[in-house]
Write a structure and sequence with these properties.
251 residues, mainly alpha
Length: 251
């Protein structure tokens, strides 16, 4: 279930861990259904159907280009990324507050295997929902490094990554460079005057798909998404601490 829907039902509860008891467990909307809906004429209908299902997908960077190749338009790709980022924002807030969503599997972003068109913890290998993992919010995908990874390294922009690809820098070297660097212009891009309850994703789904069209390798796209999410979680952790909404970072 999308965490925004879960949070709405938790306003008057003292503990978030009891959320699973409030909802009847249900299966997430399969990614295959998203792909089929994308073949229809209405982009808005696809987005509305995903919203109604309450499903969020933990998509890797290369997944957006794969979904685009299967017919999903840019607005759908951007919605998928933003809803994923929104859920990671809420999971980070709960982490800072010392709360969690327990084993409510449908409450978390769902693991996805786009190549095999599989969705959910029952079909895609992932850390079980609600299992404690030191140093990160529960529900964070296994492929996302620890929050703040590379934050003390040199800065690196998406444009620089594209330039490295164009100039023939080996794929493995680019991935290592991303993993040891601080990504720029992808965190806090909405500005302090943006009227929105949560941050806007600085690395959109359509942008990642476009990078794949530019021949950026899948492993590089996956590294970009992972490093972006790591930096995003760390930025939100610090934001919630500074707002006085939690006692610390490690719970």
């Amino acid at each position: 279930m999308n965490l925004r829907q879960v949070a709405a039902g938790l306003v008057f509860l003292p503990a978030l861990a009891s959320c699973a008891a409030l909802y009847t467990p249900r299966n997430p909307m399969p990614i295959t259904e998203v792909i089929e809906l994308c073949k229809g004429p209405s982009t808005a209908q696809v987005i509305d159907r995903i919203k109604a299902s309450g499903t969020t997908y933990a998509l890797r960077g290369s997944d957006f280009g794969k979904l685009k190749a299967l017919g999903c338009p840019d607005p759908v790709l951007d919605f998928l990324q933003q809803s994923f980022v929104d859920d990671m924002d809420l999971l980070t807030r709960y982490w800072v507050q010392g709360e969690n969503l327990g084993g409510c599997g449908f409450c978390y972003p769902q693991p996805v295997d786009v190549d095999r068109k599989l969705t959910g913890y029952a079909d895609v290998k992932a850390t079980p929902p609600g299992q404690y993992v030191y140093g990160r919010p529960q529900g964070t995908p296994d492929w996302v490094p620890a929050p703040g990874a590379g934050s003390t390294g040199p800065s690196l922009s998406v444009d620089q990554v594209v330039e490295m690809v164009k100039t023939g820098v080996p794929e493995e070297e680019i991935v290592k460079r991303i993993q040891s660097s601080r990504l720029t212009h992808v965190i806090g891009v909405g500005g302090i005057t943006t009227i929105r309850t949560r941050p806007v994703s600085g690395l959109g789904g359509s942008e990642l798909a476009h990078l794949r069209d530019q021949k950026v390798p899948d492993s590089v796209l996956d590294a970009l998404q992972a490093q972006f999410l790591s930096a995003f979680i760390e930025a939100e952790r610090l934001r919630y601490q500074n707002l006085g909404q939690g006692p610390g970072s490690m719970h």
